[in-house]
Amino acid sequence: MAITTRSGSKSPVKKSSKTNAATDSPQQDPLKHFILPKDTPTQSRFILLRHPRDSDVQRFLFCPEKGLYQFTKVSPPSADPRSLLFTPLEPDRAESHAAEHTDRSQTASEASLSCRDGYVSKTAEFFVATPFDLAFILLPLVTGRNLFQPIDDLLEEHIRDNKHLRYLFEHGRCMVEEAMSRFCDTIQAGDEQMFRFSEDKALRMLIQKADAAMARGLPSTLEEKFVTRALEAPILSVKREDTTISAIKTKSNATAPDEEEDDENASEVFDSQSSAASIAPSAAFSEASTATSVSTVVPETISPELLELQKRRTVLDFLLESCVPDAIADRIRARLAAKGSPIDFTPLDGHLSSLAALRAEALLSRSISDFSRKRGLEDDETAELRAEKKRKQEEEDKRKRLGESNGVRALKKVDVSGMKKMSDFFARKPAARVA
User: Fold this and answer.
1) What is the largest distance, in Å, between two alpha-carbon atoms of the chain?
2) Are 72 and 128 in contact (CB under 8 A)?
3) CA 190, 196, 200, 205 torsion: positive or negative?
4) Which residue intervals define the domain Rnh202 triple barrel in the entry (predicted)?
5) CA–CA separation, 99 vs 236, rounded Å?
6) Which of 229, 187, 31, 212 shows the shortest CA–CA distance to 131?
7) Contact (CB, 8 A) for 134 and 42
8) For 238-283, how does the pLDDT look when each residue is reduced to its tens digit (9 = 90+)?
9) Is-above-0.85 flag for pTM?
């Protein structure tokens, strides 16, 4: 007899598991929220470009009318979790919004679901589109060319295998040419314009951006940390008043009337002695209080010229550190430090060097005069970094404690002294020695 097998199992357990697996919906990734500029046209696209600073691929928003935007992530601290509530739109606005933003693979009802019913985000993270100069994207692409070339020849190698950069070049050619003309020398060869990278024009472009940022005003926290504190004069020596002699004089003056009195009445002598004794503690107290009084040196007012130079240097350093490659940034810094620089930072450098000498002198004088400290005073920046690191560690510990269950917390309180660890029971037995 031939052996037959069943093609399918009749077990209800297997059937139910298969049905449950089919009915379970896949877990969806949380939505990402982007705040775009107002009245953004439908021709705008999300593109992936390499950031000029570290060549890391990041998401940008390109608008053929308004330009390029970079997304800045805004998130609450881990120790303070929050959520976002998106309220529903009005019916007429929801329908128009869904009709404009419907993808080919989505229906209008699916696209307008979040707009019609509202949405609650588990985490309060969102991305804000901030303007980003297209010149910084093009800067590392043309720095290696020392000859005048057309824009197509300069960017041909880069846009050949990069469809996002090619889309940017095809739909924003006028923007690309305008951006390159700000840091490149240009000549007209017939009907075609040719470009060559120029460090002088790149430096002037950065200075113009720094001046524009200073005209709008720096953030208060940035100005306080990098401008005001950097130019503050330190507190110099600590002067203590010598009040021992004055205290002795007070005692002698207090006892002098008692010595001039006659000893005819013993009660009067006793009263004079008690009055002198009552004055002596007050003199000692005044001595102790005046000995601890400190006279500090009032810092000089900072001149407006030094403030402007420090602000301009702060903005330029920020631009070079965040938007310019290292090789180009080093060359531009060398030009700023040269004699023919458009900005003369010599007064600022001299003032900062004198402040550094004053800080070293103040630190030395305080460390010598203060015998209660076992170690010298640390630098303020080191102390701030240590406090910031401690604060982050406390937030991380608090977040871990919030994620622990009650059982884990109870197990941590158990006294396990003298008990073996679980790994000891599964350790490999030592090999028996052969006699």
Assistant:
1) 148
2) yes
3) positive
4) 35-133
5) 69
6) 212
7) no
8) 444 444 444 444 444 444 444 444 444 444 433 444 443 444 444 3
9) no
